[in-house]
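Dear Dr. H.,

I hope your travels went smoothly. While you were away I took the liberty of generating a structure for the chain from your last submission, since the lab meeting agenda had it listed for discussion. I wanted you to have the full record in hand beforehand rather than looking at slides cold. The sequence, exactly as received, is reproduced here:
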Amino acid sequence: MKLVPYRRMNEVRPMSNMLSMFDDFFNQVFEEESSEENFRAMAMDITEHDKEFTILANLPGFRKENIKISVHDNQLLIEAACNDKKEETKGTVYRCERYSGSYRRNLTLPENADVSAIKAKMEDGVLTLNIPKKEPTPMKEITIN
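The corresponding predicted structure, in token form, is as follows:
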């Protein structure tokens, strides 16, 4: 877990504001490189409908061949990898914000989710998962002998 320092805007003096920007930039670079696993969580929307759950996950720039979806013990795991390496020798690079790495998201599905009938579709950088609901099993009453 990364801890982000909290600073109030009125506590930062104008001259130190620029120095603070450089410190934040370089600290962020070293934190990302030193992390053991370079995984990030993708942004997603989860919606419950009468007959199904819908998950929309943002994965811009990823191909469906680079996305893995699995379910184990009612845990839905979505993983996506992007390892495009582009080397540019023109000019001096001051900041590179294009991401190359992996996204991972693990969700606990509710008991009424029918994991055997999950459907996935990838379109325009958005992964859509439709998870149908199954009928709840009625409570079984046990008689005492």
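Two observations you may find useful: Residues 29-36 have pLDDT under 50 and may be disordered. The chain has one helix and eight strands.

With kind regards,
E. W.
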